[in-house]
């Protein structure tokens, strides 16, 4: 009779204590996948059975607030640094740095100039400094030498390499004799087709269905390699996409003299560098030029964009309303879909799903920030994070065990450049651990009380008598 409560108490104590510890050592593995330009609601445009399988067997975040500007390079660098663009330095796909006197452009080889990337330290470098290995299939920046290093294994960027070949490399690296703990996988669609067709086109249906097939292929390959239940798989994207129209074009030539400025970046955020002595003239000519264009002097850029404190942000930026397109003149290229707009717009938001030993099952979360991904990745990899703008606390509820086993990265998480508050979570995230331990201790105490009750029955009446005696005067009083 005495063994039952005893066993229950012991089991409860063990359970409580064990839930305070997180991943096993061999479960600190992550595969981060980005399907470029996968808008959050594409999941519901056509049947996407593989995405829905991920949602059911893992976690899904409905709204991810990415960073301004909602372009590819700035957002991919945020995912791996946790920093806003003004802090990591990749402020656009097309940039000019007046101090370096150099340009950066997606369409040119100058993206391989290390100096543009070295205002931050991406996670693969930190992971490698901690003694681990990273493998990257075309993730932006991994084939650039940053702080004297590349990713341990990487495929030099080549858009003609198939998705299947990229997956094969990732699997090979995860199953190698010296395996990677961090895999990064990038795929160009549905961004490419979204630009050409426009997201509202019915032809986007098959494009999204094709991405769903690609996810299905990835899951199948992970299962075949016995990695599905071992690796923490995160499927996300850099931004969404909105429909544009040739009826919604803002032509800068109508308002500005071409000789008065250099257009560094075009649409939907025009980055304008006025020629010497022409600042006021350019600003005044553009300020009220068009009802769907908002023009900011650099120091007036809204704080919520965290887009001021960097030399690569030009003295004037002009931001188009959603769906509007900025061209210098109508002979410039025009695309039916575009992104880069205000990051508060839902259409700019990407997807976020995750599955693996660390994640809860069939769990939906309303919102997170893309800057929160970085501290989450550091937690999953059990490495020390660099200073960042994210918060682990914001995303901790995605995990099965709320209590991290290792909290060492909290030691250095303070914020750069005075941008918003650093993670206030730094102490708070250890609370669940202490709560768990306290609960465990309480259960152990309960166990001892039960033990005493059942194994020393002869002592109990005497004890009760004494307690009654002591209690008497109190009751009377
Ligand atoms: Zn993109």
From TrEMBL:
Membrane topology of this protein: Single-pass membrane protein
CDD domains per UniProt: Enpp
Domain of life, per lineage: Eukaryota
TM region(s), chain numbering: 431-452
SUPFAM superfamilies: Alkaline phosphatase-like
MF terms (GO), sorted A to Z: NAD+ diphosphatase activity; zinc ion binding
Primary location recorded for the protein, binned into one broad class: membrane
Xref: Gene3D superfamilies: 3.30.1360.180, Alkaline Phosphatase, subunit A
Cofactor(s) this protein cannot do without: Zn(2+)
Oxidoreductase in keyword set: no
Coiled-coil spans in chain: none
A Pfam family assignment: Phosphodiest
Family per similarity comment: Belongs to the nucleotide pyrophosphatase/phosphodiesterase family.
Protein name: Ectonucleotide pyrophosphatase/phosphodiesterase family member 5
Lineage: Eukaryota, Metazoa, Chordata, Craniata, Vertebrata
């Amino acid at each position: 009779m005495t063994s039952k409560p005893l066993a229950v108490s012991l089991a409860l104590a063990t359970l409580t204590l064990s839930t305070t510890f997180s991943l096993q050592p061999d479960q600190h593995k992550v595969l981060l996948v980005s399907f470029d330009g996968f808008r959050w609601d594409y999941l519901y445009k056509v049947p996407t059975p593989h995405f829905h399988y991920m949602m059911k067997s893992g976690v899904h975040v409905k709204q991810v607030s990415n960073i301004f500007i909602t372009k590819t390079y700035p957002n991919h660098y945020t995912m791996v640094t946790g920093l806003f663009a003004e802090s990591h330095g990749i402020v656009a796909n097309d940039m000019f740095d007046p101090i370096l006197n150099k340009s950066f452009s997606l369409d040119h080889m100058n993206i391989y100039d290390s100096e543009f990337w070295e205002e931050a330290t991406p996670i693969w470098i930190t992971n490698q400094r901690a003694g681990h290995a990273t493998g990257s299939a075309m993730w932006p920046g991994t084939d650039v030498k940053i702080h004297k290093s590349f990713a341990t294994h990487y495929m030099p960027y080549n858009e003609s390499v198939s998705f299947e070949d990229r997956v094969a490399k990732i699997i090979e690296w995860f199953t190698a004799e010296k395996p990677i703990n961090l895999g990064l996988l990038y795929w160009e669609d549905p961004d490419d087709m979204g630009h050409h067709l426009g997201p509202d086109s019915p032809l986007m249906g098959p494009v999204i269905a094709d991405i769903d097939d690609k996810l299905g292929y990835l899951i199948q390959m992970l299962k075949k390699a016995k990695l599905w239940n071992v690796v923490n798989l995160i499927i996300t994207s850099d931004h969404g996409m909105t429909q544009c129209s040739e009826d919604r074009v803002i032509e800068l030539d109508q308002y500005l003299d071409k000789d008065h400025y250099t257009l560094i970046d075009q649409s939907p955020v025009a980055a304008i560098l006025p020629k010497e002595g022409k600042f006021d003239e350019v600003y005044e000519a553009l300020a009220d030029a068009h009802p769907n264009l908002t023009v900011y002097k650099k120091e007036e850029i809204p704080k919520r964009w965290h887009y001021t404190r960097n030399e690569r942000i030009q003295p004037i930026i002009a931001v188009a309303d959603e769906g509007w397109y900025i061209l210098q003149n109508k002979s410039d290229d025009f695309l039916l879909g575009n992104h880069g707009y205000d990051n508060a717009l839902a259409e700019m938001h990407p997807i976020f799903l995750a599955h693996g030993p660390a994640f809860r099952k069939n769990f939906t979360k309303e919102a997170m920030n893309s800057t929160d991904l970085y501290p989450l990745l550091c937690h999953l990899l059990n490495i020390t994070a660099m200073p960042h703008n994210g918060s682990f606390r914001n995303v901790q509820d995605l995990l099965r065990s709320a209590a991290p086993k290792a909290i060492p990265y909290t030691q250095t998480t303070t914020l750069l450049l005075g941008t918003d508050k650093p993670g206030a979570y730094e102490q708070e995230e250890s609370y669940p651990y202490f709560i768990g331990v306290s609960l465990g201790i309480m259960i152990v105490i309960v166990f001892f009380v039960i033990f005493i009750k059942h194994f020393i029955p002869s002592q109990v009446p005497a004890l009760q008598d004494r307690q009654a005696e002591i209690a008497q005067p109190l009751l009377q009083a």
